[in-house]
Write the structure tokens for this entry.
Amino acid sequence: MQFALPEDLVAFRDLARDFAQKHIAPFARKWDAEKWLPDETIKKMGEAGLLGVTIPEEYGGAGQGLLAMTVVVEEIARHCGATALMIAAHSGLCTNHIKLAGNDAQKRKYLPQLADAKIVGAWCLSEPHCGTDAAALTTRAEKDGNGWVINGQKMWITNGKRAGVFVVIARTSPQPGARAFSAFIVERSVKGLEVGEPEDKMGMRASDTVPLSFENVRVGEDALCGKLGDGYVDALRVLDRGRVTIASLSLGLGRGCLEEAVKYAAERKAFGKPLHANQAIQMKLADMETQVEAARILVRQAASTFDAGRGDKQAASTAKLFASEMASRVGWDSIQIHGGAGYTKDICVERLVRDNKLCEIGEGSSEVQRMLIARAEFQKRSA
Ligand SMILES: Cc1cc2nc3c(=O)[nH]c(=O)nc-3n(C[C@H](O)[C@H](O)[C@H](O)COP(=O)(O)OP(=O)(O)OC[C@H]3O[C@@H](n4cnc5c(N)ncnc54)[C@H](O)[C@@H]3O)c2cc1C
């Protein structure tokens, strides 16, 4: 694979970088404190083309691949994990599910609105009693005349408070196995959908995370997204790509922690010289830089396999596992280099570290990634 970005993606990266520096970095601390990302910022991201990166041009997007998505998410996450998570759930999960599994009418109806942020998307798999063991979900959709009736509870839904459209994975058969589930596109205006209070989280605070309750929610036949019985399998396809996006989110957070540490080590003086003149600090910075670069290579490698049409799930898991754990390590080292200042909210590193912890948990925890990587490795070796 090529490690240098092609020219059009360099332009995309610069656009996202410029946007993040102007419209996100100055406000991220305030949004974290207020636990809310302004609608205006989301609208601006839509106008700048940052929410339709992977949506085909015929549906109003930029028609780019997963590599482009990772480039954008890295730049946004560099300054604010919560804004990047908003994009990851909106584009990487909800939009991508409709793009991968939806029919042409659904794509025509929803993708242009998702691309320019007329509506925000959310994706609903997890439930109060199951996250990792997602196939234990009990939200059910039952056939009723020409449509479906949905009943159940969803949990931890990113963007849920503001979303205009939800992709909901529900059980459509009592039989065991992966084919017992289907996906539905549910609009916010439906009767019986109740959006709960946002969680009070340690990080990603500007990103809203809510429980949802579905009580006799009626949707039409045309709400079925993908084939009947394919909902769980399609969700796993969405998650394979989503993991690469989350890896790029951690890459951006880790890079932010590194860049802040480099800056501080040059500015701050101790014993009459800048901090970075001390070999102990240099060693730390060198290890941080090495880990950030390694994560970038894993992210780009994994994304490229999907863009080449041979999506490598093991590469996706490897990128997510390494990048998310890397950003935590690099984050704590950055706090250490900042000394007392690093322990305050005046330095953005503490926020980036809090934001990153989610990346070791969501869209398949580190434990799950290790299981998937090991399983794939054994399969390869025994083939
Ligand atoms: C901020 C935030 C945003 C989220 N956004 C969304 C969203 O938009 N949509 C959505 O559907 N979900 C979302 N989630 C849910 C998220 O994907 C789940 O939290 C995650 O999958 C873990 O599930 P759980 O919390 O139920 O933990 P559990 O599944 O209960 O796991 C608890 C712990 O046990 C470990 N564990 C579980 N099984 C095993 C095993 N077999 N072997 C070893 N260890 C194991 C896990 O790794 C974890 O450390 C979000 C969560 C958070 C916190």
About this structure: Residues 232-382 form a domain with the Butyryl-CoA Dehydrogenase, subunit A; domain 3 fold (CATH 1.20.140.10). Residues 132 and 364 are 6 Å apart (CA to CA). The chain has a mean pLDDT of 97.
